[in-house]
Specification:
Number of domains of chain B: 1
Number of strands of chain B: 0
Order of helices and strands of chain A: EEEHEEHEHHHEHEHEEHEHEEHEHH
CATH class of the largest domain in chain A: Alpha Beta
Shape of chain A: elongated
Helix content of chain A: 25-40%
Distance between the termini of chain B: 25 Å
Distance between the termini of chain A: 36 Å
Order of helices and strands of chain B: HHHHHHHHHHHH
Radius of gyration of chain A: 23 Å
Structural class of chain B: mainly alpha
Oligomer: heterodimer
Number of domains of chain A: 2
CATH superfamily of the largest domain in chain A: P-loop containing nucleotide triphosphate hydrolases
Chain lengths: 328, 254
């Protein structure tokens, strides 16, 4: 196949578990050597999508190809080309870090010696060499995730699937994990990453696909998505005792939509950046409203998600993990 | 085929390497059977009459058969744990032989079963058991035991694939198999039971296998017991291995 063909091509992918439609017709392309971030809340269908692409389950309808290999017909060949690191660190707790990697290497068909060399190299890369001979049950959450990622990389797969790689990690381990993923990408690996964290997608992904209820509802770079939401947002924090009504009335002529109020915070979309702050200060001052803080910011992916779906990205959804439970 | 064998060995090795690191599991192989053996030999044994045979001779083949049937519970626990911890997903995403995870499990049971047979035999001899057979028959008896244990490993593999938690895998298996082992000739003569239970005990594969062991190790009349026991072991394997594998594939296929 040609290098300019996408690494992953998905058309009309559907999968239901009983009543729950986990995938409702997903179309998606991932360009070679890029990171696609699949962003959505729990139950959006992200994990199901990854499980179909990694040959763990079969879709009800649609096609999916990875490196030109069809996920069902060419499953055996495809498994040679992919690595999977899951949201539940899939390593054996009673084996040591090294034993885990050697096992995976040998299951890829490597000799014991080669699997061992590869395992040691990966442990060194991921700062786990000191813990190589300790059972995994003594590892911290962050160490387990790094080992899990190491296991996915044993065969140096050109395409990597990361299903919520930092869910449940503390902020420091999360930053360390991001650094590891970034270094992988710089080596040309194609990555499909699922996440429910907006900052994670923002930082790691070249392209973001927003999923909700089994559908891709928007796709683009982080900036493109933010542009879809519209211009700048003005945030005004009022002094204690300042009047909301006065503030909203004063600012209304500048606003694109109805200003929203939350506690002492007034937020609105504004038409343009230029001169906005000066004008806002002047209007509020004329109206006699005391202001504690005033800021103009680009929309975040949180705003994007809210605008696109009508609900926040990180709010718990009723069918939380329905895709996984239905399988289990 | 070569791939299946090498992958099976990798999985079996993994299962065996981790075993000593889960001490509670190891106790189940060593201390627990010895405890049962001593309990029956010295506590209940005096009250059970076994015409023509000292109770210790009667008991050892029976308790070894019961013990080996439960050897596979490690498979049920281990598979269920692997399912829930995502390890099965990892294995399924690897280019390994599809059947190797289950085959490796049941194969490592053969190794642990051999260990527990050895432990029980040594303890048995210490408390007064003696073979009344030549080496060939003794070895044939051990092979029959391992075959029978292997069959039950597949039963446990199936249970491990369908159970919702490792704990329920354990209790389902226990509730299903435990009464079977007692309503048999393993611990008491079948003739001492009420007639309804006798009818059941006579066709129970445990009775047939225990009787086969007694004929091989003690020189008792064999009848068709040995072939009957082999047929049961093969039959159980032929039914439960495909069930377990199809269950595994269903997880793959979704």
């Amino acid at each position: 196949m040609h290098d300019d063909q996408p690494a992953i091509t998905v058309r009309g992918l559907e999968k239901s578990f009983g009543e729950v439609k986990a995938l409702a017709g997903v179309d998606l392309d991932v360009t070679r050597g890029t990171v696609l971030g699949l962003l959505g809340p729990n139950g959006a269908g992200k994990t199901t999508f990854v499980r179909v692409l990694t040959t763990l389950i079969q879709a009800d309808a649609g096609t999916a190809r990875v490196l030109g290999l069809e996920v069902v017909e060419d499953a055996a060949e495809l498994r040679q080309q992919i690595g999977l690191a899951g949201q539940y660190a899939a390593v054996d707790e009673n084996l040591t870090g090294l034993e885990n990697l050697v096992m995976v290497g040998r299951l890829y068909g490597m000799s014991r010696r080669r699997a061992r060399a590869r395992g040691e190299a990966l442990l060194a890369d991921f700062d786990l060499l000191d813990a190589a001979k300790r059972p995994v049950k003594t590892y911290s959450g962050g160490m387990r995730r790094r080992l899990d990622l190491g296991a996915a990389l044993v065969a140096k797969p050109p395409v990597l699937f990361l299903d919520e790689p930092t869910t449940g990690l503390d902020p420091r381990s999360r930053l360390a994990m991001w650094a590891v993923i970034e270094s992988l990408v710089s080596e040309g690996t194609t990555v499909l990453l699922t996440t429910q964290y907006l900052d994670e997608a923002d930082r790691l992904a070249d392209t973001i696909a927003v999923v909700d209820h089994g559908l891709v509802i928007a796709q683009g770079t982080s900036d493109e998505l933010k542009d879809r939401v519209g211009g700048e947002r003005l945030e005004v924090t009022l002094e204690d005792g300042a009047s909301f009504e006065d503030a909203v009335r004063a600012l209304a002529p500048m606003a694109e939509d109805a200003p929203s109020c939350d506690g002492r915070l007034v937020t609105m979309n504004v038409r343009q950046r230029h001169g906005t702050i000066v004008e806002a200060v002047r209007r509020l001052s004329d109206a006699g409203v005391d202001v504690e803080d005033l800021a103009l910011r680009r929309p975040t992916l949180d705003d994007v998600f809210l605008t696109l779906t009508g609900h926040a990205a990180e709010e718990p959804v009723a069918e939380e993990h329905a895709d996984r439970e239905a399988v289990a | 085929m070569r791939r299946l064998i090498s992958d099976t060995l990798v999985i079996a090795e993994r299962n065996l390497v981790r075993l000593p690191r889960a001490p509670e599991l190891l106790l189940a192989f060593t201390v627990q059977p010895i405890m049962f053996l001593l309990l029956f030999r010295y506590v209940f044994g005096g009250a059970i009459s076994t015409p023509g045979l000292p109770y210790v001779q009667f008991l050892i083949p029976g308790i070894i058969v019961q013990n080996i049937a439960f050897g596979g519970f490690v498979t049920a626990l281990g598979l269920n744990e692997d399912l829930h911890k995502g390890l099965i997903d990892r294995f399924r995403s690897l280019p390994m032989a599809r059947a190797a995870v289950l085959a490796g499990r049941t194969f490592s049971d053969v190794v642990t079963n051999s260990l527990s047979v050895a432990i029980l035999l040594v303890t048995g001899v210490i408390i007064g058991f003696s073979f009344n057979a030549d080496v060939l028959h003794i070895v044939a008896g051990i092979l029959l035991l391992l075959l029978f244990g292997y069959a039950f490993s597949w039963v446990f593999a199936f249970v491990g694939m369908i159970a919702s938690t490792p704990e329920s895998a354990n209790s389902v298996a226990f509730i299903a198999i435990f009464p079977l082992t007692f309503i048999s000739s393993a611990f008491v003569p079948v003739a001492s039971m009420p007639s309804v239970l006798q009818a059941f005990a006579r066709v129970n594969p445990f009775t047939i296998t225990v009787n086969a062991m007694r004929s091989l190790w003690l020189g008792l009349p064999a009848g068709n017991y040995v072939w009957g026991a082999v047929a049961w072991a093969v039959g159980i394997t032929v039914v439960f291995a495909p069930l377990a594998v199809s269950r595994y594939r269903r997880h793959v296929g979704g």
